[in-house]
Amino acid sequence: MSIESKQTVLVVDDEPLNIKVLSQALSPWYRVKAATNGQDALKIASSDDPPDLILLDVAMPGMSGYQVCDQLKSNHVTRNIPVIFITARNSNEDEAYGLELGAVDYITKPFSLPIVMARIRNQLLLKIKTDMLEQLVSIDSLTELANRRRFDEVLDQEWRRCVRNGTPLSIIMIDVDFFKLLNDSYGHAAGDVCLKQIAQTLKSTTRRSSDTVARYGGEEFCAILPGIAHKDALQLAENMRHNVEQQQIPHPKSPLGPAVSISLGVATATPDISTLPTGLLSQADEMLYQAKTSGRNQVKGVDLTQNGSA
């Protein structure tokens, strides 16, 4: 297994010897991260490279493991990371409290290393299955793009990331021109084929792994482009428009010509803690409306980082 494909385990303990013992046992099979206090553990858990599992001591100075677990489960970014308590507190009350906080397991010291490894393996296998199911419910079944639910999640994540990094975020709203007319004229089967082909064209036009193209609803699509300047987002939108046009998807009854076309609205902003992503989304939607009312098959955009429009 390559280092890139290994799951990550975060060991949280204020005793370096305990971290060393667990790290040595885990490192042949997993990526291992370590923290000696609760604050560092929370930072790692909410980072851009979060762990797949957290091994958490209870008795730590400053912030107890119980408090760490409570904060993890209260944060929508980290609440799905499984937590296993490994602690010297062995009363039934302590174990019940830890499980009530949301931990998936509670292991008392001194522990048997083979049993700990088996429990870790079981929880990580379960997480793989859970992640696969989560991915399935995040995909639009027709186009195989991210669905609206996943779009909302990614937009929230990228917005917060751009707030932290002070980088711009662009959104492209995309609508298929006269799609209802195509559906009404040639049937929903032809409409489905059209949407699939457009979806794959839009996805293949984006080159960066950080870009997300989603089916927003019906014949609307949306792209999230973190860390990209407005002029580059406009160029990408124009590439999308051109590439869809080049597909020559038949639409004989379109007032624009014999092939399917798309209209696009682009909005770019530099997120900050006082603003919400819904505002940027509304601006992109307004630009899409302008593209449609100006004749369709074109791109309109607004650069909110410069307080101007294009």
| Mean of all residue-level pLDDT scores | 93
Describe the global form. elongated
CATH topology of the largest domain: Alpha-Beta Plaits
- Report the CATH C-level class of the largest domain: Alpha Beta
Order of SSEs: EHEHEHEHEHHEHHEEHEHEE
Our count of helices gives 10
Helical percentage: 40-55%
Q: How does the helix and strand content classify structurally?
A: alpha/beta
Strand order of the largest sheet: 7-8-6-9-10-11
Instruction: Please identify which CATH superfamily of the largest domain we are dealing with.
Output: Reverse transcriptase/Diguanylate cyclase domain
The name of the CATH architecture of the largest domain is 2-Layer Sandwich
β-strand percent reads 15-25%
